[in-house]
Amino acid sequence: MTYDESGIIDAIERLARTDVAALTQDQLDGVDQFHAGGPEAVDRLVPALRLGPGTTLLDVGSGFGGPARQIARATGCDVVGVDITAAYVEAARELTAHAGLDARVRFHHTRLSGLPLTGFDAAVTLHVQMNVADKRAFYADIAARLRPGARLAVHEVCRAGDARPPLPLPWSLDGSDSFLATPDELRRDIAAAGFDLVEWTDDTSWAADWFSALGRRLSAAPAPLTLPALLADGPTRMLNYAIALTDGTLTLHRGTFTAS
């Protein structure tokens, strides 16, 4: 299993050498977002979601909860996150409580099909569908939980062609749980699941530049608290991902859709 890390909060505090409650937002930004681009990637999605106070967001594959908390702070909306990894949900809940957002940001340990809530005003997926074989069914499950006209924003990894990226990767240690689609295939599957396309943008160059800038920052001032430090073989997984984006094996696409 790729996502089998446990004791996330203990690991964060051990690396930071302080309690989670004492961490700054900048420190948390470097560790609580399990996707390329970090909080900057979330900022690129927020305007398309059209959220505000009194609206609700569904975060599918919510991980440690960084994007959910960031969007709640930025827009005033309420967020429900779902994730299949129990340790990630436990960490997300604790980090959210420390942030004082647990009244507006909640997390469920469940597959999306097990979530009984519907009528959301928007949904978001960031680096999720690479582990999903049946992407059309996955996004149809999301569509079923949104009101008509609701927005879906995605920030997702695709394969550029037939070449395979080096392993391990952030979402797959051995390739057995990696199901990469081309950008055209992913866009068509989302549309076929009940969504109308609003925008589809290639963010590959932007993500490659983000990785380069991150590498320069860490070389100049190494930080003990980073996402790779929390993951099994984390540095290698992140390096392989960055290389595959740079050499054209992988692409990163940002999309906006409306529920039909």
Automatic annotation (TrEMBL):
<dbReference type="InterPro" id="IPR041698">
    <property type="entry name" value="Methyltransf_25"/>
</dbReference>
<dbReference type="InterPro" id="IPR050447">
    <property type="entry name" value="Erg6_SMT_methyltransf"/>
</dbReference>
<dbReference type="InterPro" id="IPR029063">
    <property type="entry name" value="SAM-dependent_MTases_sf"/>
</dbReference>
<keyword id="KW-0489">Methyltransferase</keyword>
<dbReference type="Pfam" id="PF13649">
    <property type="entry name" value="Methyltransf_25"/>
</dbReference>
<dbReference type="GO" id="GO:0032259">
    <property type="term" value="P:methylation"/>
</dbReference>
<protein>
    <submittedName>
        <fullName>Methyltransferase domain-containing protein</fullName>
    </submittedName>
</protein>
<dbReference type="GO" id="GO:0008168">
    <property type="term" value="F:methyltransferase activity"/>
</dbReference>
<feature type="domain" description="Methyltransferase">
    <location>
        <begin position="58"/>
        <end position="149"/>
    </location>
</feature>
<keyword id="KW-0808">Transferase</keyword>
